[in-house]
Amino acid sequence: QPLIRIEDLRKIYHVGDQEIHALSGVSLTINPGEFVAIMGPSGSGKSTMMNVLGCLDKPTIGEYVLDGHAISQLHDDDLAIIRNRKIGFVFQSFNLLSRTSAVENVELPMLYSGVSSKERRQRAIEALQSVGLGTRLYNKPNELSGGQQQRVSIARALVNNPVIIMADEPTGALDTRTSVEIMSIFQRLNDMGKTIILVTHEPDIADYAKRIVRFRDGRIVEDVDVQNRRIVA
Ligand code: ADP
Ligand code: ADP
Fold first, then answer.
1. Measured between alpha carbons, how far is residue 35 from residues 48, 133, 137, 138, 225 in Å?
2. In what helix (H) or strand (E) does residue 181 lie, and over which residues does it extend?
3. Closest residue to atom 6 of ligand 1, CA basis
4. What's the rounded Cα separation, in Å, for the pair 134 and 149?
5. How far is Cα 212 from Cα 225, in angstroms, rounded to an integer?
6. Which of these, 31, 4, 34, lies nearest to 209 by C-alpha position?
7. Terminal Cα-to-Cα distance of the chain (whole angstroms)
8. Distance 229 CA to ligand 2 centre (A)
9. Residue pLDDT, tens place only, 106-131
């Protein structure tokens, strides 16, 4: 069973009396364990696609089935529950709470999942250790480097054991060497079986994926399996 099945999905924004077709009939299937890079020029629909895939926004028309759940038909409350359970988000700008320690940032997604505070702390510590931040548990974001902050946000994305990690330009604010470190973490997670969907402008970053889906004018114009012609440095 595919993890994601999208059928002729459309997203139309209404601005004044204008209709903006951000997605104009997208069909896409993603299986468990895939590592997909979404590419395409500015305005081609990548963010809209990520918002729909990430259950932040619903399609105007078309079917989206995520891990057996028909997302298109859900009410917003149920959408939020599915999102919190199924998806871990990583952003370009980290989106960490600045007055809050690394471990407390990582605990956030568990706040409404009925986990005891003791177990929350335990799981957050383990998630931070798994990304090499076991010695930075009680530091605040401004006491951490960009790469360390992104590791915190990866730990936060992992802590509810989601079926998918969605990363929107996760290396956009990082230098080349740090980008390689962060992408190596995604690669390791994928090697362990985690499904990863990544948006990036950078071909070097997309090279870490096994499949590249290219958007243009709200449509998929290319969908390539690059697993067998990936250059491993
Ligand atoms: P990308 O992420 O590839 O740059 P977007 O998904 O952000 O593309 O945008 C696709 C199209 O939809 C663009 O024409 C953009 O201006 C438009 N769009 C995106 N979000 C909104 C919105 N909230 N309201 C109106 N138009 C939007
Ligand atoms: P970037 O810095 O990578 O561009 P943004 O901060 O602009 O990322 O966030 C991208 C999208 O994700 C936006 O539509 C935003 O509303 C949404 N978003 C931001 N933070 C969260 C969050 N913690 N949970 C769910 N959605 C979020």
1. 19, 24, 29, 32, 10
2. helix 176-191
3. 45
4. 13
5. 7
6. 34
7. 33
8. 32
9. 999 999 888 999 999 999 999 999 99
pTM, two decimal places: 0.87
Please name the residues in contact with 155: beta carbons below 8 A apart, sequence gap of 6 or more. Answer: 102, 106, 124, 127, 128, 130, 131, 133
Q: Is 169 in the pocket of ligand 2 (CB under 6 A)?
A: yes
ipTM of the complex: 0.70
Tokens of 96: 């960490």
Give the tens place of pLDDT for each residue, 61-90.
999 999 999 999 899 999 999 999 999 999
Spacing, Cα 233 to ligand 2 middle (Å): 32
- Please check whether residue 6 is in contact with residue 203, taking contact to mean a CB–CB distance below 8 angstroms: no
> Which residue is listed with tokens 């902050």?
149
Handedness of CA 137, 138, 139, 140 (dihedral sign): positive
In terms of phi and psi (left: phi > 0; alpha: psi -120 to 50; beta: otherwise), the region of 94 is: left
> H-type helices in 21-171, by residue range?
46-53, 76-86, 102-107, 117-130, 146-158
